[in-house]
Write a structure and sequence with these properties.
Elements lengths: L1 E14 L5 H14 L5 H4 L8 E8 L7 H5 L6 E8 L2 E4 L5 E15 L4
Parallel strand pairs: 2-3
Antiparallel strand pairs: 1-5, 2-5, 4-5
Length: 115
């Protein structure tokens, strides 16, 4: 079996007031997921639980993201989350900042290579 990528979606999420990196990441993942209505599992004759989901999140403070809290967003499949430095922090004139997270969600299946 070989892990074969079948779909990539991108999303963006923000935390406007609380500087909550996990919430911005949650919104970015949801944005990516809600862009997609393709039934990938059925298309390849797999169960939804067979989906291998790799999410990569970019934020300015990766250590501030609770990855375990984000796993519950995925309704099925085998999700994993990697958080890296990226995204943006936008300073506000009266103090504080808006946090912006970017997400890439990759869906793959274990498929046999055709010979």
């Amino acid at each position: 079996m070989a892990k074969t990528r079948v779909l990539v979606e991108f999303g963006m999420g923000t935390s406007l007031r609380r500087e909550d990196y996990t919430e911005a990441a949650r919104r970015a993942i949801k944005d990516a997921l809600w862009h997609n209505s393709v039934n990938m599992a059925e298309l390849f004759d797999f169960q939804k639980e067979d989906m291998i989901i790799d999410a990569e999140i970019g934020v300015q403070k990766p250590e501030s993201v609770d990855k375990d809290a984000l796993l519950g967003i995925f309704p099925y499949g085998q999700p994993s989350i990697r958080v890296v430095e990226g995204g943006l922090n936008i300073d506000k004139p009266q103090g504080g900042r808006t946090v912006i997270a970017n997400a890439a969600v990759v869906v793959s299946f274990d498929m046999e290579a055709e010979e």
